[in-house]
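Thought: the user wants the 3D structure for the chain below. I'll pass the sequence to the structure tool as-is, report back what it returns, then summarize two notable features.
Action: structure_tool
Action Input:
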Amino acid sequence: MHRATFDAHRQLLSQGESTPVTELPYLTDEERNLFQQFDQNGWRVEQGRLGEEWVRERLPNGDHTRG
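Observation:
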């Protein structure tokens, strides 16, 4: 998750458990920093609760199709 997604869905923040993940090779520095902030504070945002339209509007190449 990147910062803009988190900021737009901050109201979905809940408490969770720390994760044993130590390596995150496919995340950007921004995503890795946010992940570490989540992990250190025991935060979670269930990605399934993100607004579907909000997500579709941000897909690469303007792909707004379903399926």
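Final Answer: Structure generated. Residues 13 and 45 are 5 Å apart (CA to CA). Residues 1-10+25-67 form one domain.
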